[in-house]
Design brief:
Number of strands of chain A: 12
CATH topology of the largest domain in chain A: 60s Ribosomal Protein L30, Chain: A
Number of domains of chain A: 2
Oligomer: homodimer
Chain lengths: 253, 253
């Protein structure tokens, strides 16, 4: 059984209103990859956010009193805090240099995914990049357009690098998904010796996101789209909301 | 850039004192894979634990008063709790059906990794399986023996499926590693636009563990060893302890 991940080549810097589906199709052709049903494409959050124009010019932001207060406590830029708060449902932890929040989409992550690095600034201004407005919808959109353009049905994941409780280092996780069993439910399947498995909801889309992240790298945007072939589970409808543990079921908030 | 994961074929059930290195070499041959320097092998925790004889016969366990008390609070088998406690440094959370602990090796995980499913019981007795005594050492041992036997230097990871804070579903993580940059430090590298990256310690061994987990499946042990080729970073000495966030630095305990 084999799983093959290929980074799509020659993807230039993505700008607002770029058509990611055409970028994918062109790059697949250059890689001589013929897309097949049940392939999975993992797309880096940054290029989806950029294509969707989720940029905020830092100099245009006026921090609120609350943003100023939190900025003082965390020693962050108050304008950045203002943008973070605009994407935040609830602050989970706050310390110097750390602001862990529940994003309006439900993920617990640092800075609501608002990112300053790797944001092109042709006008010399500084920009912040927010997560896509609705990453599941972005994935579904890419999936539908690929189906219309190429006639195949693939899974699509948007991944991002998140920190974690208990462990050092970021790992790729799925912030959006379409056509993938994001949470794979194996509960109730007996194992080889007929014990019923107990902990067998697998975060499949997160494992795919992590695998893709291995090839994407961090410090450049040269490999923001990864093609995966050989996922050993039937694809189905699905989305990244499946992976969010609701607060009431979470012992670690 | 391509990453290829291959599950090694025809691996029979592992028993105490089985020689995993010979199992790996035989199966690589059957898969017609010629091992190369910088390949990575990911081995499922269960077969390492079994080969190392980390089994406890349930009927031989006498629960302590503390185990009985915790069993009552969590509605778990008191004998299983006794074994869990023997592997535990500190209880992190405890609720009905949930016992999250800091394992003596430093991981935060459910039930100290003590597992009842998929444990062969030829004598009709029930057994529990504990994590390897020292998974980093087990990895280093496999790595050294492969180097001696085959003359190539690979990375070795032992993975396990762990639950997480905030998100549903388990993902594969590295509980042991050798010859792999478990925590990949990209801090200080400027990105494309010369911002210095801020969150760029990558949990590389965890991403490799998650990727391998995609092919291992859960409900059988037919694919417990995954061969990975194409990791786009230079391998180096390394171990899974790099990935453990010390309690004092952890906002989520």
């Amino acid at each position: 059984m084999q799983l093959t991940l290929t980074s799509l080549p020659n993807i230039s810097l993505i700008k607002p209103n770029d058509n990611l589906v055409e970028v994918i199709i062109k790059s697949l052709k250059e890689a001589a990859i013929e897309l097949r049903d049940d392939d999975v494409l993992v797309v880096a959050q940054k290029i989806v956010s950029k294509a969707e124009g989720r940029l905020v010019r830092l100099s245009a932001v006026t921090p609120s009193a609350r943003a100023l207060e939190i900025a003082a406590q965390t020693q962050k830029d108050a304008r950045q805090v203002e943008v973070i708060l605009s994407e935040t449902k609830e602050i989970v932890r706050m310390r110097t240099n750390s602001l862990i929040v529940e994003h309006r989409l439900g993920f617990v992550c640092a800075n609501a995914g608002v990112d300053r690095s790797n944001v092109e600034a042709p006008d010399g201004e500084e920009y912040l990049l927010m997560l896509p407005e609705n990453p599941d919808r972005s994935c579904a959109d890419i999936r539908e357009k690929l189906r219309a353009r190429v006639g195949v049905t693939v899974g699509v994941i948007i991944n991002d690098s998140h920190g974690r409780a208990w462990r050092s280092g970021t790992v790729g996780i799925a912030i959006g998904a379409a056509g993938v069993p994001a949470l794979l439910d194996l509960r109730g399947h007996p194992d080889l010796f007929n014990y019923t498995l107990h902990a067998t909801q697998v975060g499949l889309a997160d494992e795919l996101a992590a695998a893709a992240s291995l090839l994407m790298g961090q410090a450049d945007e040269g490999r923001p789209i990864i093609h995966i072939r050989g996922v050993p589970y039937p694809l189905r409808e699905g989305n990244a909301r499946e992976l969010i543990r609701v607060k009431e079921m979470d012992m670690f908030r």
